[in-house]
Amino acid sequence: MSNGAFCIACGAPPPLTSERMCEACLRQRAELSRVPERIQQYRCSKCDSYEVRGRWSLMDYDDIADLRIRENLVAEERAKNVEVSFSVEVIDDRTCRLQIEVTGTIEGYQFDDQHEALLQTSNAVCTPCTRKAGSYFEATVQLRSAGRRLDDVELKQLRRTLDEMLESMESDPMFFVTKEGSVTGGWDLQLGSKAMAKNWGRRLVKSFGGTIKETSTVVGSNDGIDVTRLTLSYRKPAYDLDDVVRFRKQLWMVDGWQSDGPSLRRLDRYERSGASWRDMEKSIVVCPSREHHVVEVMNRDSSAVEVMDPTDYRIVTVALPYDDDGETSRIRIGFIDGAWVALPAGRRSLNE
């Protein structure tokens, strides 16, 4: 800076800031940070979630205080290396006192601010709770089976996958069940979100096979845009993985799921095949996987083993499956056509 420079506010000599002010005048005129004395927020009186930029989230005192400070604290444009720390004092259920400390530099000079603000909470009702109270739903999921009724065990398995999906996903307030119950042949659910229904449908097909049919119905309009509801019909096959089925006069084990039907494995030799869902409607389950038994091998030779009948504990002889390794001490058997039959390794471990 050239000789003769001085502070434009008080006439003090250098050092001066870029705006030609001394440190004292800079501190009088510059404010590192500003925070309002009162900060207002809204909390749902039904689920205790907080309104955050038009959405609703469950948060604890520290997290919501941190968020509100970030939303309301304004730092000076020239400030650098700004750091914020705070503490929360809970006064009552609706009011917290925030003690806020802000440090940073302006024009190379260190500034330290301290603020006190009241965080006040008003009751409201969030959009998801409003919709739940009004029996709102965007999608209906129908659980059915091909050509028969779903039994209680199958219904529990299918329904459990929805809870597992919700536990594994990031929380979404619109992922709720409005209504569910038994109907002829299956189970119906009304869900708060189309995305929830579609995600669940994909999970059902991946886990249990089967087909999905989606239909959309216009139920109104909003600002000229059609409002639709989705009906997603899931049809579970009449068989599960590892079930033994009679298909085209041969015995097969259900080995996996493909988009157009199950993959199959011959029971008596190493052979794999695929079949369409329509073709498999003619198949018959002769030994479901839940009726398979894992038993200890009592004696063995090159072609057969002796095992204990799991129903009356008599010793029976069964032919070895084609994939026997000659050493295993346990074997899986199923009762097929009036006799115990050794089964090739399925998807489940012999320890199950």
Question: Your description of this structure?
Answer:
The protein is elongated. The N and C termini lie far apart (84 Å). It has helices spanning 23-29, 61-72, 127-133, 152-168, 194-208, 277-280, and strands spanning 33-34, 38-44, 50-52, 55-57, 74-75, 80-92, 95-106, 109-124, 139-145, 177-183, 186-191, 211-222, 225-236, 244-247, 250-258, 261-266, 272-274, 284-287, 293-300, 304-308, 315-319, 330-336, 339-343. It is of the alpha+beta class and 352 residues long. It has a five-stranded mixed β-sheet, with helices on one face. Strands 17-16-15-14-18 form a five-stranded antiparallel β-sheet. The protein has six helices and 23 strands. 18% of the residues lie in helices and 45% in strands. It has four domains: 1-30, no CATH class; 33-127, Immunoglobulin-like, CATH 2.60.40; 135-236; 244-343, no CATH class. A hairpin with a 2-residue loop joins β7 and β8 (109-124).
Q: Which terms summarize this structure?
A:
6 helices; 4 domains; Immunoglobulin-like; five-stranded antiparallel β-sheet; 352 residues; 45% strand; alpha+beta
Provide a count of the helices: 6
What share of residues is helical? 10-25%
Mean pLDDT: 89
Order of strands across the main sheet: 10-11-9-13-12
Indicate the low-confidence ranges by residue numbers. Answer: none
Say what oligomer this is.
single chain
Class by SSE composition: alpha+beta
- Describe the biggest sheet? 5 strands, mixed
- Can you tell me the overall shape? elongated
Number of domains: 4
Order of helices and strands: HEEEEHEEEEHEHEEHEEEEEEHEEEEEE
Proportion of beta-strand residues: 35-45%
Rg, nearest Å: 35 Å
Strand element count: 23
Distance between the termini: 84 Å
